[in-house]
UniProtKB/TrEMBL annotation:
Similarity comment text for this entry: Belongs to the metallo-beta-lactamase superfamily. Glyoxalase II family.
Coiled coil: none
Record bears the keyword RNA-binding: no
A GO molecular function held by the record: sulfur dioxygenase activity
EC number: 1.13.11.18
Protein name, UniProt field: persulfide dioxygenase
Species, as recorded: Solanum commersonii
Family annotation (SMART domains): Lactamase_B (SM00849)
Gene3D superfamilies linked to this entry: Ribonuclease Z/Hydroxyacylglutathione hydrolase-like
Length: 277
């Protein structure tokens, strides 16, 4: 069963968000650039994922570009875009000959303004996506268990609340025709050798799952579930030690908090007055 959350009917999957509801196999409760291309080994006709990891230095934020280049229209999406690097990201989309269809956020960010609204003003066909639990504005609201398709590749939506109630992790699909190893875009829920003030069960994923956080402050770009199980100094501890660590971090008030949160509730465009941004 397909679940569409938009107010207008469309004739093509590339004119509208293509979200499919499903029951996940596992239960989850809780300008620097890296890149690679990968294909599934099961078939010559399997989708080809092109992936780019992009960096915004002021907030140490990662934006991720994914596309299915085996599809004729080369549909693409951006995860956690930043307003200050929208022009760079859209230039890359154009250079690679991709068709951007989604601008996705893992949660309502407090340390930068999302670029999703600005992207929509430049590419009106792009649809913004965020979790329904975030209570922010978007064209499409996803819930745990939804699938987001771009071409023949899809992302699963998994709830990872704690950092905010609306935090979700986007995980590449599990199947013979999906790229391997799997990739998890964790937002602020799980960082490399750290976490974003949250509790969750991302560790139920296979140990070779690649983890791509929304931030890194030490120069790391990617990790795996297996590495974080062994070496994450917070999450390798028991519950009481974890609580004590998190309660005594003495973190400063986020400098962009008062600007970023109100803006990100409306796709980064505070003047937006419509129901969907």
């Amino acid at each position: 069963m397909l679940r569409f959350r938009c107010i207008q009917l469309f004739t093509s999957p590339f004119e509208a968000p293509f979200i499919q509801s499903f029951k996940p196999h596992t239960s989850i409760s809780c300008a620097q650039m890296g890149s690679y291309s990968t294909t599934s080994s099961s078939s010559q006709n399997s989708p080809k994922l092109v992936f780019r990891q992009l960096f915004e230095k002021e907030s140490s934020t990662y934006t991720y570009l994914l596309a299915d280049t085996s599809h004729p229209q080369k549909p693409a999406l951006l995860i956690d875009p930043v307003d200050k690097t929208v022009d760079r990201d859209l230039a890359l989309v154009k250079e690679l000959g991709l068709k951007l269809i989604y601008a996705i956020n893992t949660h309502v960010h407090a340390d930068h303004v999302t670029g999703s609204g600005l992207i929509k003003t430049k590419f009106p066909g792009v649809k913004s996506i965020i979790s329904k639990a975030s209570n922010a504005k978007a064209d499409l609201f996803v819930e745990p268990g939804d699938k987001i398709y771009f071409g023949d590749i899809f992302l699963e939506v998994r709830a990872t609340p704690g950092h905010t109630l609306g935090c979700v992790t986007y995980v590449t699909g599990d199947g013979p025709n999906q790229p391997q190893p799997r990739m998890a875009f964790t937002g602020d829920a799980l960082l490399i050798r750290g976490c974003g003030r949250t509790d969750f069960q991302i560790f139920t994923l296979p140990k070779d799952t690649l983890l791509y956080p929304a931030h890194d402050y030490k120069g790391f770009t990617v990790s795996t579930v297996g590495e974080e199980v062994l070496y994450n100094p917070r999450l390798s501890k028991d519950k009481e030690i974890f609580k004590n660590i998190m309660q005594n971090l003495n973190l400063s008030y986020p400098k962009m908090m008062d600007v970023a949160v109100p803006a990100n509730m409306v796709c980064g465009l505070q003047e937006t007055k419509s129901e969907a941004c």
